């Protein structure tokens, strides 16, 4: 999918987001790795973005598990996740705001988005 800027309204505030995906192959026969970045910002505040970084293994026939509604095991519960769904992106926006992201003043990055998925956002 192309890197497309999308609009989303959360609590009467307009946000924009983009998902960047990069694939790199590891070895000749091994599956590769996906590096995915979810970048969010408030309307009018493009320079103070909220970013979530993810590293995931390629899934044969599916591709990037974070953008294809793949199921993952979260504390023995099967859950699905697709970063292209606005309801999922809203969870990330609310998490950033709750944890100190001030879109008027500064950027914020979460380098291990995988850990957030497993331990914080989808308990």
Description of the molecule:
- This protein has one domain.
- It is built from two helices and seven strands.
- The protein has 123 residues and is of the alpha+beta class.
- The protein is globular.
- The mean pLDDT is 85.
Explain briefly what this protein structure is:
By secondary structure, the chain is α+β, with helices and mostly antiparallel strands.
Q: In total, how many beta strands?
A: 7
Query: Major sheet, described briefly?
Result: 5 strands, mixed
Q: How many domain units?
A: 1
Order of H and E elements:
EEEEEEHEH
Mean pLDDT: 85
Radius of gyration: 15 Å
Determine the structural class based on helices, strands and strand pairing. alpha+beta
Identify the notable features of this structure and list them briefly:
alpha+beta, 18% helix, five-stranded mixed beta sheet, 2 helices, 123 residues
Write the layout of secondary structure elements.
Blueprint: E1 6-10, E2 13-24, E3 33-42, E4 50-57, E5 70-74, E6 77-81, H1 86-98, E7 108-110, H2 113-121
Parallel strand pairs: 4-7
Antiparallel strand pairs: 1-2, 2-3, 3-4, 5-6
